[in-house]
Task: inverse folding
């Protein structure tokens, strides 16, 4: 495995599923360079998933304007107060990365990237992405591929 791509989000929660939609688009085109594609419902799953020598790309919805913008984020960006990935279960992406670092610093991925898809607000009971966020999925896929040299 050269990379692990993690799509974060909740299905049937509207734009919160942006990360999962990007992961599904990557599945349809074929994982880049043998990358592992992983779905995670919430950030708590990241603690274990970040324990790898491979590059990790996390794709998640972020609360930012305008909806549909694709953002490049890094762990230091999250610590500095950049647009925050949506957390529907309390633990945020930045907190999960820090927990993984504290739990096993020698096993933490040396290269963690975050692709954020901006949303207006999370929605608990909506089966589809908004038009703006759906239109951002191909751009987010391209951003993931660019991180991996594709």
Result:
């Amino acid at each position: 495995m050269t990379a692990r791509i993690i799509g974060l989000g909740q299905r049937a929660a509207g734009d919160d599923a942006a990360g999962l939609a990007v992961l599904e688009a990557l599945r349809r085109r074929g994982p880049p360079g043998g990358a592992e594609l992983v779905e995670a419902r919430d950030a708590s799953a990241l603690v274990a998933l970040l324990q790898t020598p491979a590059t990790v790309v996390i794709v998640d919805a972020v609360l930012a304007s305008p909806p549909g913008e694709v953002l490049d984020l890094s762990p230091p960006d999250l610590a500095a107060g950049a647009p925050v990935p949506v957390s529907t279960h309390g633990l945020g992406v930045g907190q999960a990365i820090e927990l993984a670092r504290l739990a096993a610093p020698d096993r933490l991925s040396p290269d963690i990237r975050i692709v954020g898809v901006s949303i207006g607000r999370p929605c608990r009971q909506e089966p589809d992405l908004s038009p703006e966020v759906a239109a951002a999925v191909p751009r987010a896929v391209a951003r993931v591929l660019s991180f991996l040299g594709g």
In short: The CA atoms of residues 68 and 131 lie 8 Å apart. The mean pLDDT is 87. The longest strand covers residues 55-63. The two ends are 15 Å apart (CA to CA).
